[in-house]
Amino acid sequence: MRHLRNLLVGLLLATGLVTHSHAEDGYDLWLRSRPLAGTALSHLETRLATIETADPQGLAVAELSRGLTGLLGRSPALEKGGAVLLGLADDPAIRALKLDLTGLGPDGYIIRTFGPRTIVAAEGRNGLLYGAFHLLRLARTGSLPATLDVREVPKIDRRILNHWDDLDRHVERGYSGQSIWDWHKLPDWKDPRYTDYARANASIGINGTVLNNVNANATILTAPYLEKVAALADVFRPYGIKVYLTARFSAPKEIGGLPTADPLDKDVIRWWQAKVDEIYTRIPDFGGFLIKANSEGQPGPQDYGRTHADGANMLADAMAPHGGIVMWRAFVYSHEVPDDRAKQAYDEFVPLDGKFRDNVLVQVKNGAIDFQPREPFHPLFGAMPKTKLMMEFQITKEYLGFATHLAYLAPMWKEVLDADTYRPKQGSTVAKVVDGSLDGHKLSAMAGVANIGTDRNWAGSQFDQANWYAYGRLAWNHDLTSEAIAREWIAATFSPDPAILDPILSMMMPSHQAVVDYMTPLGLHHLMGRGHHYGPGPWVEGGPRSDWTSVYYHRATKDGIGFDRTATGSDAISQYAKPLADRFNKVETTPEEFLLWFHHVRWDRKMPSGRTLWAELLHHYGRGIATVDGMITRWDGLKGRIDDARHAEVAAFLAIQRKEAQWWRDASVAYWQSINGLPLPKGEAPPPHDAAYYKALSFPFAPGDGK
Ligand code: GCV
Description:
Layout: H1 2-14, H2 38-48, E1 50-53, H3 59-72, E2 77-78, E3 84-88, H4 92-95, E4 109-114, E5 117-122, H5 125-140, E6 149-152, E7 158-162, H6 192-203, E8 208-210, H7 223-236, E9 242-246, H8 251-254, H9 266-282, E10 288-291, H10 308-319, E11 325-329, H11 344-349, E12 360-365, E13 389-394, H12 410-417, H13 430-434, E14 445-449, H14 464-476, H15 482-493, H16 498-508, H17 511-519, H18 551-554, E15 560-561, H19 578-585, H20 595-598, E16 601-602, H21 613-636, H22 644-676, H23 691-696
Parallel strand pairs: 1-2, 1-3, 3-5, 7-8, 7-14, 8-9, 9-10, 10-11, 11-12, 12-13, 13-14
Antiparallel strand pairs: 4-5, 4-6, 15-16
Helix pairs in contact: 3-5, 9-10, 14-15, 15-16, 16-21, 17-21, 21-22
Bound molecules: 4-O-methyl-alpha-D-glucopyranuronic acid.
4-O-methyl-alpha-D-glucopyranuronic acid is lined by residues 164, 172-173, 214-215, 292, 296, 331, 370, 398, 706.
């Protein structure tokens, strides 16, 4: 009986009528290789089943073989004259082909068809590894063209993950379990997961990782911990991944026994130099420091009357002899609450333009507040041409539904990267600022706050893996479209079969807008629960500072809602170039998605749709929920086509998302009504409870809170 069933499944698989549906848990990420069948298999048999390499022990060939083994159902043979030739520029077999490999740099590669052969060639080992992963991606996603002519060089030099991981393994804003760094057992036990982490990152071009939280603990800089860090660096090195650390600015006091951490103090300078030398003795290719200073209670140079540039440059000077860099965060806002928090980073940093050392990058969040579901691009991107600015995105979904809401973030990131700063002229996109091309900077970087933890699926949910993937792909090439990236990811993670790929794509593409719609439509922002940021909290007020409340941001009154940032309000618009400032200064010309970000608008104002603002808000809430309904229907339709375990997990999470989208809508509507007293537009269902009910809900153990 079993034999018969196997035979039947085998036949169906060979005809492509069923896909594999054995238990999977997502651990393999997009590196999942399952045996191909039918024409797909024979295609691969002819194209990639034998490999020639001058370095049979190399990682590039090991990864290529590993991936192909999964697809072919057997190991590809290593042989001279093999169908694939994998090699560095100075390998005789590559040299003989006289390929033009100039300008590829350490990470670039080419993949080219040469008669019946496929050539993967690079100048450096990292490039070769990236080339091998590229070829595998094509094979895995069923998109290996008959002729290949690929030349890839990353647009950004440092493509970095930022882990907000504490030394006790708590992850700030982490929703996927604990930190994967098992500090207590390091350096003696190197969890094999570290290697899998490195493989996954290398496969999408990520080449750096900041291991610890920006809310830093100086202990990471002590000798025993540096030994642990060195052990991780040893694991990552072959995959082209450099290790970076966050440095607590007060470390000279806390672990160095000095009375001060003043960046101009001679002993402090000497202490950092010695510390940096020590790090490089242990980790010769250490990447550098990331610093959060004078922000949210973190120590910094301003504690001593010095500037951010003084602090950054002191560390940069210690790093320079070793080739290290300093990433200095621009996420600052002072204890003296300013008129508008959105303006503060600009006010503090623009006067410092041109004052940072060459090996300093200023790390700027995509928007001026804090990783909200949607923010206009940070005005700093158009204002510091003499400074290397790097982008900080948040992959973990602190403000976008944690791990359970499906929100594909590439469209949000693209929106920012493609935004035009108009400085110095039209066409000066944020992407060109960040990749250094606009202002001729040689060094460029991008950071993504990681969503990685100890959960088997790494990211907290199957679909959050797509955000890790998309971040890596965009850091490599910000010209890629969100859709192209989603297609790659779906094909690798689930299946290239259009009957599976297309419905999943249609779930992912509108998902970010859906979250914006049911949480913070029309430019609203920072309305989440206090502290943990879980669920709606538009009523949040009081507490230590007004700019940590929701009422500060929405400013709802009986008459209207929104933050007036026009010339007659906080004037944040003047931080943008004139064409944008002019546009944002008027309600009529402000893009609708940023309306309440820049304006306080009457509830009864007529919107372009003909609805009043109040009715428009309700429309958006409903639209967001309807999109989630559509996602659920599509996913239900995939039952039996996706392995049961992953299907069930996603289905359960979508049900949570649906419930919480409704909660967001109902709680928000009840609260706005408690302020504006307006009746609901026709056809809108009343929230089942009053605002007081939603306000009283409490979530003391919501995950990921700051400490
Ligand atoms: C690491 C927000 C988050 C904090 C985070 C901070 C930052 O405020 O809520 O958890 O701290 O951003 O980016 O430094």
